[in-house]
Amino acid sequence: MKKVGMISLGCAKNRVDSENMLGMLVSRGFEIVGDPAEADVLFVNTCGFIESAKEESIDAILEMAQYKKLGNKKLFVTGCLAQRYPEALMSEIPEIDGLMGVAEYARLFEMMEAADQQQRPCYTANGVRFLQTPRVLTTPGYSAYVKISDGCDNRCTYCAIPLIRGGYSSRPFDDIVAECEALAGDGVTEITLIAQDTSRYGCDLGDGHYLLPELLERVSAIEGLHWVRVLYCYPDSTEDRLLDAIQRLPKVAPYLDLPLQHIDDDLLRRMNRRGSADWIKSRIAECRKRGIILRTTMIVGFPGETDAQFQTLLDFVKEARFERLGAFTYSAEEGTTAAKMPDQVDEAVKNERLDQLMMLQQGISMEVNEARIGTECEVLVDGFDEDQGRFYGRSLLEAPESDGCIWLETDRELTPGEYVQVKITGADAYDLEGTIIE
């Protein structure tokens, strides 16, 4: 039995691709190992979204290349960086035995067999292909991500995703439901639906209407599922019908992940973001009316961003009081329109603005969390922290891997994957504390 090791970098969408590849390998008799020194075959599934992610991917490839000195190992590179820079990777890192882009995972064994014949295969066709293969979950066994589409048609001027993943393509409705049913049958109780743009799901199917509300209804009806989440919505396709479904369906988290990037109308146009500041504010108001909490992402230092426009962003964040907010400095990505724009902002200014925004959000997060003290909620137990000596978990209002946790006070032994009732007793800017209600 051959042994395989894999490093998966980047987003949850990339994680699903890694899990599909692992499922294919296990179906052929491979054993998954955590120590690269033990592996006969090594995979690095890369991210190529922004500069820091590219650097992390290169470092991981070079680190895994060192293990080839220990014996007759094969090293394969897959994912977004492989799709974006195949020639450079193959020429500059001779230790790579084969490379495969994001639309080529069905050729996994073809690539491996070619490498066994001393070839250096490089497969990077464009397009979107959805695999109907078994998965090996790298998340805890009770929680899984399910990809509902791939690619993106938004063409934001700063983003390389369409260059890497191609145009938007919805996965067939019945295939998604079948996978969710299979996961529930295997003990998964929490499913998170993901895509580059989930709110546009179904626009290329049938009559062109968005189908995310119908998908949420169907998935949340699956026996055995306890919670359903949806991430990565786009403001202009976040209709009231979707918000109504989130509010109406009891298993669906009242939580909307709505990356906004900015609020200044001029910058939104330069970013090629559809929807005005007024539309964005209307979406926020509709969410608040329905009791839906909000997570967003902002970009600081986009080309041409003035001090006044940055202050407009700060004022908006103060007003909107997002429960969750992440931010990053603008990164000029090769091949994107924004990389060629004049008035690029100095890196020191970008970093100063990022610090200012995140300090503002830290105070808001603290106040939001303190307001939850005394409330009760259901919590999914995630594990036990040896350093803290406490169990921890999440409520419906904390997404996996993105948000803080709830530290649990209890005298009894808890099991990861168990749901318990908790009263919130303490808070800081990111985490909460709670006591289990017996």
Short description:
The protein is of the alpha/beta class and 438 residues long. The chain is built from 13 helices and 19 strands.
Overview of the molecule:
With 438 residues, this protein is of the alpha/beta class. The chain has 3 domains: 121 residues, 3-Layer(aba) Sandwich (Rossmann fold); 228 residues, tm_1862 like domain (pyruvate-formate lyase- activating enzyme, Alpha-Beta Horseshoe); 61 residues, OB fold (Dihydrolipoamide Acetyltransferase, E2P) (Beta Barrel). The protein is 33% helix and 21% strand. α8 runs parallel beside α9 and α12 runs parallel beside α13. The chain starts with a strand and ends with a strand.
SSE order and pairing:
Blueprint: E1 3-8, H1 12-27, E2 31-32, E3 41-46, H2 51-66, E4 74-79, H3 80-84, H4 86-92, E5 98-100, H5 108-116, E6 122-123, E7 143-147, E8 149-150, H6 161-165, E9 169-170, H7 173-185, E10 190-194, H8 212-220, E11 227-230, H9 240-248, E12 255-257, H10 265-270, H11 277-289, E13 293-300, H12 307-320, E14 324-329, H13 347-370, E15 376-385, E16 390-394, E17 406-409, E18 419-427, E19 432-436
Parallel strand pairs: 1-2, 1-3, 3-4, 4-5, 5-6, 7-10, 10-11, 12-13, 13-14, 17-19
Antiparallel strand pairs: 8-9, 15-16, 15-18, 16-17, 18-19
